[in-house]
Design brief:
By secondary structure, the chain is an alpha+beta fold. The chain is 33% helix and 29% strand. Helix 5 packs across helix 6.
Length: 293
């Protein structure tokens, strides 16, 4: 198994199934140490994407109940080879970072594992898992990511702190996380709040928009525009204030920074054409298309 890179170098190798075994072994060690301090663990990062080349460094995300209980285990973690990288807090305020490899043991300069501790239920946990799942489900997006990584690695194979490599991926990652978020809701049951019910009049510069369907959002879930994720509700002809429903489609906007969900009461279904017609009152202003469940 190829595992580890010298600090400050960037190199990609073909996917190895042994990485998945190594991730499982690492998670078992972390589970034994952290116990109730963590709710869940996940193999994330490029070594968890089966169809692309990756830096041979294992990334594990830990969904913690809080940072305090994890830091109380710091001694045990470091005895097992996972060293706390406190300086990372300036760049990653919503997570703790532990790292493994001879660089941290003081016997060499190789990095083999990064352990990203985030809060359970947080956007950070969601993003780690969604990014992995989306790239594994969408091979064309995964290959686009691989091509970008290969270009960046070729441009600067020696990159102190891997700043060039990391910065070069930033835009792709932000866009993919936006797409992965809405994709992750396809087929799921959700509870939404309605802030623009049937008949709502929205006055915009130059025109007035009357909503023929209920339109709301998922509380506490934020989309690409930084606002709560919007949802068109089909199948409810009267104004409502909230609804339990199932996501039946996604509106992908090509010329905007956000996408929308389409939901309906449980048991109701709509074709892509029916959904496109229902949301055209607003989507006509955008270059968009509907992805059905």
């Amino acid at each position: 198994m190829t595992l580890g890179l010298r600090r400050g170098t960037v190199a990609l190798v073909p996917h190895e199934t042994e990485w998945e075994d190594e991730a499982r072994r690492t998670i078992e060690v972390l589970k034994a140490i952290l116990g109730d301090a963590a709710e869940d663990f996940a193999h994330v990062g490029s070594t968890s994407v089966r169809t692309i080349m990756a830096k041979p460094i294992i990334d594990i995300a830990v969904a913690a109940r809080g940072f305090g209980p994890v830091l109380e285990k710091r001694g045990e973690l470091e005895s097992a080879g996972f060293f706390y990288r406190s300086k990372s807090g300036a760049d990653l305020p919503e997570q703790l970072l532990f790292a493994r490899g001879s660089l941290y043991e003081g016997t060499g300069d190789v990095q083999t594992h990064f352990i990203h501790v985030v809060k359970a239920g947080s956007a950070e946990w969601r993003d780690y898992v969604n990014f992995r799942d989306y790239l594994n489900a969408k091979p064309e997006a995964a290959k686009e990511y691989e091509a970008l990584k290969l270009r960046l690695a070729a441009e600067r194979p020696v990159d102190a702190g891997r700043e060039h490599y990391t910065a070069g991926k930033k835009e792709f990652i932000a866009f993919t996380l936006r797409k992965a978020l809405v994709w992750s809701y396809l087929g799921r049951r959700i509870h939404i709040k309605i802030d623009r019910p049937v008949g709502y009049v929205h006055k915009k510069e130059g025109y007035t928009l009357v909503y023929p369907i209920n339109y709301g959002f998922i509380p506490g879930v934020y989309g690409g525009d930084g606002e709560e994720l919007d949802v068109y509700l089909l199948g409810a002809d009267s104004p409502v204030t909230e609804a339990d429903c199932r996501v039946v489609g996604v509106v992908h906007r090509i010329n905007d920074v956000e996408d929308k969900l389409i939901a309906a009461p449980e048991g109701m279904s709509f074709s892509a054409q029916e959904m496109e017609e229902a949301v055209r009152f607003q989507e006509r202003w955008y270059d968009s298309f509907v992805e059905p469940v």
